[in-house]
Amino acid sequence: MMQRLGAVFAIAVASAVFADYGNLSTPASVTDGFKPALAACAGFALLAALSALAITPPKTQHTPAFAPPKHRRCHRSTGWHETAARTLPGPS
């Protein structure tokens, strides 16, 4: 919701800045209005980036996305994998 509101607000401000500095009568007047409107949009983008950095919580601990299983069977049908052999008894 806030993204849509921010986009509408940015378009309204850019339109107001363009209307204040330029118009659509000649290519030079379009450029005269477009440059300040683009600068206003860049200012809003900078403000949005700074606010996103301010509200993002810092990462305190790295959690692995995948934890390998503790006990695996060996690729052979007889015997356990070497890491599990220390903790589990072998097949009888």
Compact description:
With 92 residues, the protein is an all-alpha fold.
Question: How would you describe what is shown here?
Answer:
This protein is an all-alpha fold and 92 residues long. It has a domain at 2-55. It is 58% helix and 0% strand. Helix 1 runs antiparallel to helix 2. The longest helix has 29 residues, at 27-55.
Please describe the structure with a list of short key phrases separated by commas or semicolons:
92 residues; mainly alpha; rod-shaped
Low-confidence stretches: none
Shape assignment:
rod-shaped
Mean pLDDT: 79
Distance between the termini: 63 Å
The percent range for helix content is 55-70%
The topology string of helices and strands comes to HHH
Task: List how many beta strands DSSP finds.
Answer: 0
Structural class: mainly alpha
- Report Rg: 31 Å
How would you sum up the major sheet? none
Count helical runs: 3
Strand percentage, roughly?
Answer: under 5%
Write the layout of secondary structure elements.
Elements: H1 2-21, H2 27-55, H3 82-85
